[in-house]
User: What shape does this take?
Amino acid sequence: MPLAELARIDATELSRLTRAREISCREIMRFHWERIEAENPEFNALVNLADPKELFRQADERDAEIARGQWRGWLHGMPVAIKDTSDAVDFPTTKGSALLASHMPTRDSIMVERMRRAGCIVVGKSNVSELALGSHTFNGLFGATRNAWDKSVSAGGSSGGAAVAVARGMLPVADGSDLMGSLRNPAAWNGIYALRPTQGRVPQGPGPDIWTEQLGASGPMGRTARDLGNLLSVQAGHDPRQPLSLHSKFDFDDAAEPDPREALRGLRVGWLGDLGGRLAMQRGVMEACESALSRLAGLGAVVERVDLGFDVEELWQCWLKLRSAMIGARVEPLLALPGAREGIKPEALWEYEISRSLSYREFILASQTRSRLYQRMRAMFADWDALALPSCQVWPFPIESRWPESIEGRPMDTYHRWMEVSIYATLAGSPAVAMPAGFHPERGWPMGIQFMGAHGADAELIRIARAYERGAAPESRAPA
Assistant: This one.
């Protein structure tokens, strides 16, 4: 197969061709390394890259294994770059902070362990926002990652490097993590697919806390929906080091290609929109998402506006408390390092200061609010197969900006208020798949829509995304 054709196939097909020995792991590495050399200097998506000689050595080793009839798994011979918040032996875990520039882990995270076992070759790390805070990938250590469609604007974040590397063909798939839209936002702005899995589906860490930190989730990013399912199959599953990880098995069958009209006929989608005007939306965002829903309805889905039926300001205050408590505990150990106060972004210090004033009673009351939201959404999923929201509230903004201070004249009172749209899936622990929705009418920037599902309905959301992709999705390949 001519290497140029690799740009037109997804990771699932690439895996099939590799196993059938129609293409070698060395050829796969060569194609992607050439893409990295050509694209990464412009887009700054990947950092701390490995020595290419070592990467080609590993690729030859994978080829030799196939020749002996050994197959490690779906990622056999595929180049990946681990998000720079997750530990991968031989690579620093910097989290985009100069304070951690030389932090070398001694073991892989659970997820990386599984991905290596399935045969991947780690080429480096993907760039993140500093300490993975904020949906704009920039930091003082490596700089900013540029949008795959327009280098003058943000790539989103915090998994911005991963999204751009996939969108520009530097990687076949990527891992990411999502606390406040960090998978969904960069997927939307770079025209790819991503899944924030059900809480506990992919065990994280393990880190210093295994009981309370249950807001973040790790998951897959890809150019197609079936790639999400296959990568999640590698990442998912219980691990005793994370006792709250799910025991239920994630089953995904990529063999059958769903007919969009059959798969979507009668699908019930509740459109939450801007929550009755509660969420500020930049002009054109709602229209792009409603156009996607209209195409979905044209294939037989039932789409109706619904009300969340919950005090969203109460949810925002709940979010501030739970998030700040978690972020504060992460920031505190860094403050013991030399030059920490000057070296940590002010937004992180702001959340740390909030955490210091929180009482245990406030934390528990916030958790009770979160629990009521879960029960409310659980009841809604009895009537709706999916609840839809825009993936973002704004279009990609200038790369020099830190964050949008207002949306259509409405001031944002925190550095992350402009991503309020992401907190509902996070608080409910629900899976949410992000899909391309449409484009900015003048600038051509991508926008995404997210479908939230019932707890455990990850496979169902991917099934919906695959049908949507085949019948209703816009062309989402980044311009060459």
